[in-house]
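thought: user wants a sequence for this fold. calling inverse folding tool.
action: design(structure=
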């Protein structure tokens, strides 16, 4: 019986360590989400690109080549974007679809991925494919990132949907590294 307790002790310590690490990761994700959740998605959107094509009948604008979009402190770059809008008296952006090396930054936070969708009606930003988050020296990698600007909750999972592996070499898992305060 004493031998069984001795054998169980390392497992219990590992489980406690895992639980503490998971709580730390969840807390770091929550802090990053809170910072971006304070974003004003009603602010004007400014954009620039090598080429801009207005498709008035489809109510969209296609921007291609070094696309640069800014809304307050939120900044997005991509190879190509499609901006869907409504035209009921005044133009209102409904959605931005971005592809090709998409990078979204806000202050010291940086998210990158293959594809991004910013849904203005739902106030949700979704990035898919080789997603990488950076905040200072902290990193988080996965297949899909969803940021809900309404609630301040963001989630990262390992798969980008359709069964494809998200982060290269991750096997469909979320991985990362968080800095730990140094003790004096």
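)
observation: tool returned 184 residues.
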């Amino acid at each position: 019986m004493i031998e069984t307790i001795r054998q169980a002790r390392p497992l219990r310590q590992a489980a406690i360590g895992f639980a503490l690490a998971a709580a730390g990761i969840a807390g770091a994700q929550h802090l990053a989400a809170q910072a971006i959740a304070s974003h004003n998605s009603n602010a004007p959107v400014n954009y620039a690109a090598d080429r801009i094509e207005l498709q008035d009948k489809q109510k969209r604008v296609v921007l291609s080549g070094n696309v640069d979009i800014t809304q307050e402190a939120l900044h997005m770059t991509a190879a190509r974007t499609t901006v869907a809008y409504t035209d009921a008296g005044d133009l209102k952006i409904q959605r931005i679809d971005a592809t090709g090396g998409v990078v979204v930054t806000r202050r010291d936070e940086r998210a990158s991925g293959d594809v991004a969708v910013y849904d203005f009606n739902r106030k949700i930003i979704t990035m898919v494919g080789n997603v990488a988050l950076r905040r200072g020296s902290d990193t988080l990698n996965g297949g899909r990132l969803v940021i809900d600007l309404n609630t301040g909750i963001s989630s990262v999972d390992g798969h980008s949907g359709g069964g494809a592996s998200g982060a290269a070499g991750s096997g469909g898992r979320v991985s990362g590294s968080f800095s730990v305060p140094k003790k004096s």
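thought: summarizing for user.
answer: Here is the designed sequence. The domain at 2-177 is CATH 2.60.450.10 (lipopolysaccharide transport protein A fold).
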